[in-house]
Amino acid sequence: MKNPTNYSRTLRVIGQTLEKFRAQAYDIVCYGNCYLVRCQTQEQERKVRSFPNFLRLWREETEPKANVGPNQRPPMNVELIYTPKDIERLEEQGKGGRRD
Question: Which of 6, 28, 42, 50 has its CA 20 to 30 A from that of 20?
Answer without folding.
Answer: 6
